[in-house]
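Figure 2 data, in text form.
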Amino acid sequence: MPHVVTVFLRNGGRVLLARRSEAVGTYRGRWAGVSGYVEGDPDDAERDARRELAEELGVREADADLVRAGATVSVADEGREWTVHPFLFDARSRDVDPNEELAAVEWVHPTAIRDRETVPGLWTAYRRVAPAVETVAADETHGSAWISLRALEVLRDAAAEADSRDAVASVARRLRDARPSMAAVENRVNRVMADSETDPESVRRRAEAAIDAAAEADDSAAARAAELVRERGFDRIATLSRSGTVLAALEAAGASVLVSESRPGGEGVGVAERLVRLGLSVTLTTDAALPGLVAGGEADAVLLGADSVLASGGVVNKVGSLPVALAAARADVPVFAVCARDKIRGDGRVLGEDAGRLYDGEAAVGTENPLFEVVPADLVSGVVTESGVLDADGIGTVAAEHAALAAWDD
């Protein structure tokens, strides 16, 4: 039985579908992912997936990150049988260069697969690599902007398959409960449910619109932050952990970067590597050393992500943010949080998450290993969002709007 790869290339919550041209041997004119035969060991099918991305779209390894390799799908159609190896990659842009095997390409919400004439088993293959509630709950690498987009994708896909609003509402509640500390997950899920009608199809359409709006909001917040860095002449930026919005801002600003490793996940290391590949000057340091370096004049400004922003203006972010902010205040270095408005909480709750096992010895040692902490409002120079830098009054207004969204579940 032949083995083939099917690659779903994702950007901003949409995936690329390709219509097969007359130059291919099978399923001419049908829509598919990027596909091709496995030429070597099926256990090493990722190599074939990357080859097809490069050959059919001009997408190289540096242009896309592997998100997930899914369980195989057995397909039988018109006397033919084959095994599909599905893959999901995140693309850094939607710029592609299709070859002669592809008659057309479109960036669409994956739910469009259900309404098109596709190669056999395409929706099943997509669902093998699509995000799930567990994806949202277990992710310890990405920031809440990325995770909240995945939550909206889960809600969208669930609505496409659901036969009642109650079934979709159950998924919505599970998503909110999966990451209670991340305001963007709660606010974005609440908005979809509050703004939709009683049928699942309405939820699907609203979720798709929310995904597009969220991706644009995150990009706009990053652009605003990059503009602020350039306008104020900040040449050296300190940061920690991994915020996709901050990362995009740093890429656009072009300043040199001082980043801490961000234990226990080490996501700061990945940030450093990514920025170096983009040609920026980057220094990696330890979490413990970062405050002293900021206080010692090694940074002109600090950019923090935000898992949430409290109605008071306080910023909830990865542990290590508070000592950096305190050191920055001592050195008169401004601290800005960068995030979409959807990260502003509609209440004053501070919900923590535990970073995992800290001590495995036999002594009766109590431990505290929080993942997040609060940077008080008086240590934050401003919160940079898609609508500009918000002050305390602006944050309070948005918080009230978000509090009202939760009424859908009363």
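Caption note: The chain has twelve helices and 18 strands.
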